[in-house]
Amino acid sequence: MGAQVKVKCQCGLRAEILTGGNMANHLTVDFFPCYCGHCREVVQANLKDTSPKCPTCKSDEIIPYTNPKLRAKTWKNTFIKYFKDDLTKGYYKCPKCQRMTLQFFHGSIFWD
Length: 112
Ligand SMILES: [Zn+2]
Ligand SMILES: [Zn+2]
Known about the structure:
Blueprint lengths: L1 E8 L4 E7 L10 E6 L4 E6 L16 E2 L37 E9 L2
Antiparallel strand pairs: 1-2, 1-6, 3-4, 3-5
This protein binds zinc ion (2 copies).
């Protein structure tokens, strides 16, 4: 099972990230939204890789959005259940404007 998550920030940043894996590859593939300071974008990386990389600039300095450093202090402990228990409806750091105004939303769900 995989799910799409939409990313939005007040500065205009928009992204759609596919998370998780599927029945065939879930042991080796676990896509998750990550912060890339080089691209200044939210990117999709495979956390099951030994060294996850940004798919765009190939940097390995990306930070998964499970990292508490990317969470606002007013972080709400409301989990977005469908895809990942560790993404919440609170605010996160935006790679574009560097403010804690980025949020995740439900996208489409894929069952496979
Ligand atoms: Zn990058
Ligand atoms: Zn922003």
